[in-house]
Design brief:
This protein has 367 residues and is of the alpha/beta class. Helix content is 31%, strand content 23%.
Amino acid sequence: MRILHTSDWHLGIQLHGISLLDDQRKMIEQLAEHIHKEQIDVVILAGDIFDHAIAHPEAVKLYTDAMTLFCRDCNRPVLLCAGNHDGAERLSMCSALLQKSGLYIVGRLQDSLEPILLGDTAFFLLPYFNADEARALYPQDNIRGMAEAMQAVLSRLHPVQGYRNLLIGHCFVAGAVASESDRAAMVGGSSRIPTDLFSAFDYVALGHLHRAQAPAPNIQYSGSPLQYSFAEAGQQKCAILLDTVTLKRCELPLKAARQLQVLRGNYEALLMQLRLSGGCQDYLKIELTDTPAGLDKLEQLRVLCPNLLLLTGTTPQGSRTTLTVEQLSALSPTDLMTHFYEEIAGGQPDEEQKSWFEAALLEEEQT
């Protein structure tokens, strides 16, 4: 069988106040193209489908569209487990009924995890869980930490003879590297799972960490399909293609319509560079090395870079100043005037100056 492994979609996530739903829709369309082109038999989604447990209606609609596209239009089964960001109970509603449409979902840790047999492979769906959940299921095991919790769970999963045995999970294993956007990853040493606990499985398809990586020969993170932090700027995102006959795997590249970029340098030099290149449509963070990040500079740069999301600069004292488009959008006209006055005059406007501004603003609104 040919399997497509993806995870950590985080549908509904915002980047500095900007919705990424359009970018995520294009990503899903690319995955569908890979399904057809690579003759994929099964799609795996290893957790964190949503960014919040109570997902926004638009994110839920995009998820529904994606599952309809994969299961009905592409006619491929989809197997998914809940991640720590997902609302497990909501995600797994009507799961028994959905199996008839080719959508297999496990939301909560269960005492009995029966494999799903498709083709030559036995799939075990293991959702995100914590040590307390494992203790509640197996009080006799004297579980003290996450490693022992995982050991207790895995000891009750029985590989199927004559099949490739594939585990789909959402956790942090030892030897893996977290990214800045792994906001809720359990990065403490006690929460990392030893890789040898998974030795009974031919392939372990994991989610949770946003960088594609293989911390052990049989363990693979697909990583997030889009860049969700400026620390990931320049990082190639992908899905993983696995052949169950040979157990060979390769990366299927995913190209975002708008990449994340970080530009750093002198303000005038960067302005000239952007003018000569005709501007930039990518999501940008600009770091000014010679001047504070003022509102006037933010507005000038946004003429050339409409998706500029973060501007940082320096002050004479050597500290950093930061402005985001999200902050700018939240400012009232009076707040904008006050901020501008501070930049130009180096102090706060007095009450009389504020009243002049507000009177002029009211007059403008009435004309």
